[in-house]
Amino acid sequence: MKIIALINQKGGVAKTTTAINLSAGMADKGYKVLIVDTDPQASATFALGIIEDDRGTLVDVYSAKKVKDVKLPIYTYSEKIDVIPANLTLSVTCLNLMSRVGSDNVLKTALASVADVYDFIIIDCPPSINKLTINALTAATDLIIPVETEAMSINGLREMEEYIEQVKCNTNELLNLLGILITKYDKRKSSTQQIQEYLISNYQGVVLKSVIRDNVDVADSVIYKKPVLEYKPQSNGAQDYLSLTNEILTKLGYEQK
Ligand SMILES: Nc1ncnc2c1ncn2[C@@H]1O[C@H](COP(=O)(O)OP(=O)(O)OP(=O)(O)O)[C@@H](O)[C@H]1O
Ligand SMILES: [Mg+2]
């Protein structure tokens, strides 16, 4: 079982879109996936049409006195995809975590109870560096950093690297960077080529070969509360996410079913 976190402190780089569509790609290959929404904006929860009920949300997991005893709030999206949803209160929960003993390990401890149930757990992170992201990176075995090909996107990448090193030194020695993923790729934009070249030459071997093209169907799929792989399987977006899924499965040594 692998736990993959989508992380970048920059907003709007397609963390959530990638969490959902990579999960859909893995489900398409027959793997069982759990999506964990750790963002108070609850975009993944919303994009999959999950409505909170008395099972609760990730807030209840973080608020529990003894996390080992918590029944996880798991909702079913489809046969192969389950979801632990977020809600806005998660931002208050995040502040409360600051004063809690062992607060970096809450998510890791919670997810240990379902490790046998899933092939992959995919964690969608908020666009910030805080206790929620530390928990995600402490729980994760692997991470992907989505970036847009815009000048502003590469600012902050070095800080991300330092942050990941800090996590490795302190809470998760074995955390593995699967790669930097170029998203919303539009070759008509003049900056695109330059930024892509910059990334490939400065992060050798780290930039994933799969690129996610800018594609209106990807954005529209959210309206229909589906991954683009279900909404428009023939679209560029769906094809790109399938090729990403294949690349990630190969990198992790999983069978291409
Ligand atoms: N390949 C794509 N083509 C077109 N639009 C896209 C693509 N990927 C993502 N988007 C759109 O870009 C916006 C931001 O994407 P998304 O919400 O996944 O980013 P994010 O990094 O999770 O944002 P945040 O930091 O706020 O959590 C959304 O409106 C989404 O639909
Ligand atoms: Mg998001």
Structure commentary:
By secondary structure, this protein is of the alpha/beta class. The chain has one domain: P-loop containing nucleotide triphosphate hydrolases (Rossmann fold), CATH 3.40.50. The chain is 41% helix and 18% strand. The protein contains 12 helices and 8 strands. An 8-stranded mixed beta sheet has the order 3-4-2-5-1-6-7-8, sandwiched between helices. Helix 5 runs parallel beside helix 6. The longest helix has 16 residues. The mean pLDDT is 95. Magnesium ion binds next to helix 1.
Keywords:
12 helices; single chain; 41% helix; alpha/beta; binds magnesium ion; eight-stranded mixed beta sheet; 18% strand; 257 residues
Q: Over the alpha carbons, how many angstroms does the gyration radius reach?
A: 17 Å
Q: Hetero groups bound? A: adenosine-5'-triphosphate, magnesium ion
- Which structural category fits the helices and strands? alpha/beta
Strand order of the largest sheet: 3-4-2-5-1-6-7-8
| CATH architecture descriptor | 3-Layer(aba) Sandwich
Order of helices and strands: EHEHHEEHHEHEHHEHEHHH
Task: Report strand %.
Answer: 15-25%
The residue fraction in helices comes out at: 40-55%
Amino- and carboxy-terminal Cα gap: 16 Å
* Main sheet record: 8 strands, mixed
> What is the strand tally?
8
CATH topology: Rossmann fold
CATH class categorisation: Alpha Beta
- The H-level CATH homologous superfamily, spelled out, is P-loop containing nucleotide triphosphate hydrolases
Count of spatially separate domains: 1
